[in-house]
Amino acid sequence: MVNNAGITRNSTMHRMTEDQFREVIAVHLTALGMALAQRGPSCAKSGSGAVVDMPLLSGTIGLGGRPITLPPMPPPRPIAVFA
User: Fold this and answer.
1) pLDDT beyond 60 at 74
2) Around Cβ 57, how many Cβ atoms within 10 Å?
3) What is the H or E stretch that residue 17 is in?
C-alpha cells in the first residue's frame, strides 16, 4: 500500500505558525494511521505486506516557501465497461 496523503503550507518551517505546523503534522500522521488501520489486519492475516509512506515530495526536496502550483487537470475519460 502507498500512502500519499498530505498537505503543505506556503512557508518555510521557521516561518510557520505553531497552528500551521500542527495542522501539517496532524494530517500526515492521521493519514498514515488511518491507512495502517485499514490495511494492517489483512497484512497480519496474510503474514505479509508493505506500506510506503510518502506524504509530499516537498517534504523530501523542499520548496523554499514557494507556493505549489499544479497544471490544470484534464477532464476525466470515460471508463469502458465490458460485460
Assistant:
1) yes
2) 13
3) none
Distance CA 20, CA 29 (A): 14
- Report the alpha-carbon distance of residue 8 to residue 24 in Å, rounded: 6
Half-sphere exposure of 72 (CA within 13 A, CB side): 2
Please provide the size of the chain in residues: 83
CA dist., res. 16 & res. 65, Å (int): 10
pLDDT in tens, 5-45: 777 776 677 777 888 888 888 888 888 888 888 888 888 89
Burial zone of 67 (CB within 10 Å; 0-12 exposed, 13-18 middle, 19+ buried): exposed
For CA atoms 62, 66, 71, 73, the dihedral sign is: positive
Q: Cβ contacts of residue 68 below 8 Å, gap of 6+?
A: 8, 10, 58
